Amino acid sequence: MRLRRSRVREGVFSSTGFRIRAARPTAATPPVAGWAERVAASLFFTFFPADCRICGAPLIEISRLPVCESCVREPQPLCGTFCSVCGEACDFPTGLNIGDTRCRICRKAHPPFDRAVAYGSYDGNLRDLIHLLKFDQVRPLAPVLGRMLADTIRALEPTLPPGTIAIVPVPLYAKKKAQRGFNQAEAIARAALKCLARPSRFERRFELCGGVLLRSRDTESQIGLSRRQRRENLRGAFSVCDPTPILQRNILLVDDVYTTGATASECARVLRRAGAGRVWVATVARTLKIPDVSAVSSAISSATSDDLSWRQSRDDNGELASVS
Ligand SMILES: [Zn+2]
Ligand SMILES: [Zn+2]
Predict the structure, then answer these.
(1) Distance 300 CA to ligand 1 centre (A)
(2) Which residues 6+ apart lie within 8 Å of 139 measured at CB?
(3) Which one of the ligands is nearest to 63 CA?
(4) 75-317 maps to which CATH number?
(5) Count of helices and strands (H, E) across the chain
(6) What are the domain boundaries of the chain?
(7) What is the DSSP letter of 91?
(8) Closest Cα to residue 240, out of 261, 268, 218?
(9) 154 CB contacts (<8 Å, ≥6 apart)?
(10) Confidence class of residue 135 from pLDDT cuts 50, 70 and 90?
C-alpha cells in the first residue's frame, strides 16, 4: 500500500500491539461492547493511528513517527556514476576524455554553484517520507531526513574549502510557510546540523544562516515546465534582504529535493550577486534521468570535482569511511 493522503496530528502515533489489539473486537470480545469501551476505542484509533502510513503494516513500537522502522530504513544512498557538477546520473560513453566528468548540460554551461550532491533518488519510500513531512506536516520526520542530509554533507565536507560554511536553506514564500507552519528545508537543515555537531570536529564547520535568502513569489508549481521555462518562472523570485551574514562566505544551499536544478541555480546566482563566495548544494533527494543507477547497496557515491567516483560506506559506528 502506498502513501495514503490524510492530515496527521503530531504526537505519539503508535502504541504497543497489546493496546491496539485489545481495542479491536476479537472472538473473546462480546459482540456489543459497552459504550464507554467503544468511545475509548474510537478515540484511541483517532489519536493513535496504528498502521504505517507508507506500507500499511501495523506499528508495534511507541514512536512519534507514523511510519514503520523498515520503511524509514529503506531509502539507500545513491551509488553509480554521476556528473561531478550537478550530480545527474551519467552513462559516460567510452572514449570520453576521462578528466571531464561533467554531463552534457554542465559542459555546455557551468551552473552558478560548484557542485550539487544528494542522498538518494527521489522515488519510493524516500519520496513518501519527504511528502509526509512536507504535505502532511509530520514534523518528527525532519530528524530522519536530516540524518540522511548529514551523511551527504559529511561525504562532501573534505572537498569544501577551510573555514566555516554557511548553511542557507532554500526559502518558502511567506504565505506558503504560514500555511505549512514551517519550511521543510530549514527543518531538515537544523536536524542535519544537530547530527553534524557529533563528532564535535564539525561543530564550527557549519553554521545555519536562515532568513538571509527570501522568496518573494510563490513559484512552487513548476510541473510541466521546460528547463528554460522553469528558469524564467524563477527569475526575480529570490532576493537577499541583508547580505552581511553571507558576504564573501562560502555557502551550502540546502533543500529537500533537487529536480532540474533551476531553483538551486537561481538561489546560487542571487547569493553570489549579493556578495557570497562559492556555493554548493546538498539535498535529501534528487530526480535521476537514468533510474537504474539509483539501485543500491550500502554505499554512497560522491565525486570530487576531479574524481568521478570515490565511494563511502558506513563503518560499525555509523561513521562514513572511504572504500575506494
Ligand atoms: Zn512501513
Ligand atoms: Zn551536470
Answers:
(1) 23
(2) 10, 133, 182, 187
(3) 1
(4) 3.40.50.2020
(5) 10, 10
(6) 1-72, 75-317
(7) -
(8) 268
(9) 196, 202, 320
(10) very high
Omega of the bond leading into 199 within 30 degrees of 0 (cis): yes
Note the ligand closest to the C-alpha atom of 261: 2
| Cα 74 to ligand 1 centre (Å) | 9
Q: Distances in Å between the alpha carbon of 63 and those of 67, 100, 167, 192?
A: 9, 47, 30, 20
- Least Cα distance to 78 among 312, 300, 287, 322 occurs for 300
The Å distance, Cα 290 to ligand 2 centre, comes to 13
> What CA–CA distance (Å, rounded) separates 309 from 248?
30
Q: What is the pLDDT of residues 31-88, one digit of tens each?
A: 445 667 656 655 555 555 579 999 999 998 778 899 999 999 999 999 988 999 999 9
Q: Grid coordinates standing for 315?
A: 563503518
Task: Give the integer Cα–Cα distance in Å for 117 and 280.
Answer: 8
Q: How confident is the model at residue 15 (pLDDT cuts 50, 70, 90)?
A: very low
Name the band, by pLDDT with cuts 50, 70 and 90, for residue 227: confident
Distance 286 CA to ligand 1 centre (A): 22
Interval between CA 89 and ligand 2 midpoint (Å)? 8
For the segment 149-199, what is each residue's pLDDT rounded down to a tens digit?
A: 999 999 999 999 999 999 999 999 999 999 999 999 999 999 999 999 877
In the reported structure, the alpha carbon of residue 263 is separated from the centroid of ligand 2 by a whole-number distance in angstroms of 15
Gyration radius (Cα) of the chain, Å: 22
The amino acid sitting at 251 is I
Are the C-beta atoms of residues 176 and 186 closer than 8 Å to each other? no
